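Session log. Operator J.P. requested a structure for one protein chain; no other inputs attached. Running the standard single-chain path with token output.
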Amino acid sequence: MSVSHKIKCLVVDDEPPAVDVLVKYIEAVDDLELTATCSNAVEALSSIKHSSVDLLFLDIQMPQLLGTDFIRTLKNPPKVIFTTAYRKFAIEGFELDAVDYLLKPISFERFLKAVNKILQTTFHGTATSQGFEGQDLRHPENFIYFRTDRKMVKIFLDDILYIESLKDYIKVITTTKQVITKQGISALEEMLPSDQFLRIHRSYLVAVNKIDSYTADDIQIREKELPIGRMYHHEVLKTLRSTIN
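Structure written below.
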């Protein structure tokens, strides 16, 4: 079981090519549902009033009203991911509690990183016009999407054994399968709950509750021995001694 139903998305942008890109990306993720596209804030306001919206993909530089000013007009705004070609709006965007700030042209990998923030940390339970209730990251039903072989693969956090870095790629080893995707291990580490996953080496992240045994030099997960890196040694052993009986 995952998110109880799809996250309803509204795209607001006055540039048709930018809209087309976001629509294509949204359609590629199973847990997202496009409700409408709008070319300006006035249309967006009407759409929000007439249908439930959980997540806005909102351009900032638009005619009539800036996206940032539009958000300020809403009493209970949905979650927002700003999309813009201008870096100068970034600080203002985050001051408005934006989930993320995407610079055009937006790659699918960057889009997916922003969406995973929503899926992991925000949405759980029954949707309302004000969005979803907060989700407990320790819950085994939490998941993350990875792009591999031209498709999106959902991996539940509780199924992950460890993650291995392969230069520009990572290999995610789970209880049932392996997934290879183009992503940095440090970027993934930032997205995972720190109380569940531990960096033990520049090339390895492990699920703490999947550790079978450890020594001062390595960690055993099932049949795999993973080395503890010199620069991680102190913190790893400190953490393991405090969390593993």
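Operator note: Residues 8 and 53 are 5 Å apart (CA to CA).
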